[in-house]
Automatic annotation (TrEMBL):
<dbReference type="Pfam" id="PF13304">
    <property type="entry name" value="AAA_21"/>
</dbReference>
<keyword id="KW-0813">Transport</keyword>
<dbReference type="InterPro" id="IPR027417">
    <property type="entry name" value="P-loop_NTPase"/>
</dbReference>
<dbReference type="InterPro" id="IPR003959">
    <property type="entry name" value="ATPase_AAA_core"/>
</dbReference>
<dbReference type="GO" id="GO:0005524">
    <property type="term" value="F:ATP binding"/>
</dbReference>
<feature type="domain" description="ATPase AAA-type core">
    <location>
        <begin position="50"/>
        <end position="115"/>
    </location>
</feature>
<dbReference type="InterPro" id="IPR051782">
    <property type="entry name" value="ABC_Transporter_VariousFunc"/>
</dbReference>
<protein>
    <submittedName>
        <fullName>ABC transporter ATP-binding protein</fullName>
    </submittedName>
</protein>
<keyword id="KW-0547">Nucleotide-binding</keyword>
<keyword id="KW-0067">ATP-binding</keyword>
<dbReference type="GO" id="GO:0016887">
    <property type="term" value="F:ATP hydrolysis activity"/>
</dbReference>
Length: 159
């Protein structure tokens, strides 16, 4: 299992590489595998040249990328994400969407919160709508939205 917060609270005094190795140590990811994954993910997210810098010098988007990589480094089957696209540039958002789809297509599950309903509509197999802390609708995308867009279905449920 892994968790990606919308505002990651990382150890700012560590470099990106040190932080990712720290997380890999926690999950007991073998050195050879972790190095390959760190390099692959850092390259995909465009931060490979920044891994030697302290995290406290990173922008919000770069911190989000480190949080994403740290969550994926041990190949979890379940990931919880809170507004995972906040702060990401379009390329990184596209990369994350592809990775999310791959994880689900390979038997994993992702629970994520978002206020961008178009993203949920494109990515999710199932959806739940929460209003005021209460579940007001859930099911497959087709069950919840019918012939409407997810946004229109949400607005109807809000009334």
């Amino acid at each position: 299992m892994a968790y990606i917060p919308d505002n990651p609270d990382l150890y700012g005094f560590l470099t990106g590489a040190a932080y990712l190795n720290f997380i890999a140590d926690i999950y007991k990811v073998p050195l050879k595998i972790r190095n390959k994954r760190i390099e692959e993910f850092a390259d995909k997210y465009g931060i490979i040249d920044d891994l030697g810098m302290p995290i406290n010098s990173y922008s919000h988007g770069m911190r989000q990328k480190i949080a994403i990589i740290s969550a994926l480094i041990h190949e979890p089957k379940l990931i919880l994400m809170d507004e995972p696209f906040v702060g990401l540039d379009p390329k990184a958002s596209h990369t994350l969407k592809k990775q999310m789809r791959e994880i689900c297509d390979n038997g994993g599950a992702i629970f994520f919160s978002t206020h961008v309903l178009e993203v949920a509509e494109k990515l999710c197999d199932k959806v739940a709508i929460i209003k005021g802390g209460r579940l007001i609708a859930s099911g497959t995308m087709a069950e919840v939205k019918g012939n409407l867009s997810l946004e229109d279905a949400f607005l109807e449920l809000e009334e």
